């Protein structure tokens, strides 16, 4: 039914995510659920691919029926899981690799191409599949292969890993703050989608030297002083928890909140005798007709000239006022940039067709898609980096 189409597409995307991680059973489950809700050609093709990977490609010498029987018996424990010397040696080699030795896990050099990465993953995944490899440690080796592929197959994650040698998915790796701009903002021109969204609070921290994630309250199109708020970062979209943080590090992470409280308290005392801040707009809308530019980064904004004349005589208040303007500008750019990335990701997925019906022309168009707001955000980040 048409009413179930959205839910069917959601299940299909979940199935694709499971397949990319090597979770064939889960991928099959969600693909079948998608088809039961609303059958689509993409879902039917994906199911054929999953069945082929699970039963036929693992052992080309076995017929599909016998492969299914063998896999089922392995799962149900009716017979021991056999393995070959080759499988055993491969498991030992992978298990001897370090946690973050992703290239070594896949048996690749650091200059390996995307095609080499996919080829190595497919070969090893078939060799290590739990249904066909009963060697001790095969399950763990299979997970290591999937993790290595997940990182190296993603351009942004691979770039971060090449630079820092740590898991880019984990905040516990503490990537250097001084390289934050380079690691998160470069390469907008190559048309690739970011994997880790940068939050406005992170760029705000870069703007003002890490005073904590405090920002002046944004009211409508304007700003009023004397009130501050903190923003907590959301959990990862996949629902996975971060790695456990040591107690001393948790205490250290609370320090900005303590400083924020002190700063907010002192700010409230300072502002108690001040007149209310005038509002502003990032677009020219009456009565915001006078265009101004922030002193630090030349961000354009508009004010009501009748409210602003006396206010601008106080440099200290004006500086803090313009910090709020810049923060609002960053949030707006981030919102627009996120929309552009969603559109590009949809085009990439449509062009890739899960590598089954690859459309090279559409893929190239998606990679070269113009993202003006992301480019502005990139330029602003480079400007911030140069000014530090």
UniProtKB/TrEMBL annotation:
InterPro entries documented for this protein: DnaJ_domain, DnaJ_domain_CS, DnaJ_subfamily_B/C, DUF1977_DnaJ-like, J_dom_sf
One of the GO BP terms on file: cellular response to misfolded protein
Membrane association type: Single-pass membrane protein
Record's keyword annotation contains Transferase: no
GO cellular component, one term: endoplasmic reticulum membrane
Name by which UniProt lists this protein: 973_t:CDS:1
UniProt keyword terms in alphabetical order: Endoplasmic reticulum, Membrane, Transmembrane, Transmembrane helix
UniProt xrefs under PANTHER family: AT29763P-RELATED
CDD domains: DnaJ
Location relative to the cell: Endoplasmic reticulum membrane
Predominant cellular place of this UniProt entry's protein: endoplasmic reticulum
Chain ranges of the J domain: 101-165
């Amino acid at each position: 039914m048409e009413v179930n189409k959205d839910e069917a597409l959601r299940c299909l995307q979940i199935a694709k995510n499971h397949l990319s991680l090597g979770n064939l059973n889960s991928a099959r489950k969600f693909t079948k659920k998608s088809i039961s809700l609303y059958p689509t050609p993409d879902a039917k093709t994906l199911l054929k691919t999953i069945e082929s990977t699970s039963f036929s490609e693992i052992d080309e010498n076995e017929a599909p029926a016998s492969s299914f029987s063998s896999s089922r018996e392995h799962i149900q424990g009716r017979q021991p899981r056999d393995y070959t010397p080759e499988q055993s040696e491969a498991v030992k080699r992978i298990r001897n690799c370090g946690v973050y030795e992703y290239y070594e896990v896949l048996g690749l050099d650091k200059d390996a191409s995307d095609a080499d990465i996919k080829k190595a993953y497919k070969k090893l995944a078939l060799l290590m599949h739990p249904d066909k490899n009963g060697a001790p440690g095969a399950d763990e080796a299979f997970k290591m292969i999937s993790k290595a592929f997940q990182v190296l197959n993603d351009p942004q994650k691979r770039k971060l890993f090449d630079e820092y040698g740590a898991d880019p998915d984990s905040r516990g790796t503490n990537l250097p703050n001084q390289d934050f701009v380079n690691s998160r903002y470069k390469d907008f021109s190559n048309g690739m989608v970011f994997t880790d969204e940068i939050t406005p609070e992170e760029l705000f921290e870069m703007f003002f030297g890490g005073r904590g994630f405090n920002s002046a309250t944004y009211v409508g199109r304007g700003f009023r002083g004397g009130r501050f708020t903190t923003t907590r970062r959301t959990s990862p979209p996949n629902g996975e928890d971060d790695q456990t943080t040591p107690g001393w590090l948790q205490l250290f992470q609370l320090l900005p909140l303590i400083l924020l409280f002190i700063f907010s308290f002192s700010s409230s005392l300072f502002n108690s005798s001040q007149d209310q801040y005038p509002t502003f707009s990032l677009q020219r809308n009456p009565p915001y007709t006078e265009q101004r530019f922030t002193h630090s980064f030349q961000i354009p904004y508009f004010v009501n000239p009748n409210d602003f004349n006396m206010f601008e005589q106080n440099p200290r208040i004006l500086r803090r006022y313009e910090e709020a303007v810049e923060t609002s500008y960053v949030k707006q750019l981030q919102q627009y940039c996120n929309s552009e990335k969603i559109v590009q990701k949809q085009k990439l997925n449509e062009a890739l067709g899960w590598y089954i019906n690859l459309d090279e022309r559409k893929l190239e168009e998606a990679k070269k898609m113009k993202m003006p707001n992301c480019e502005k955000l990139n330029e602003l980040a480079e400007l911030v980096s140069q000014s530090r």
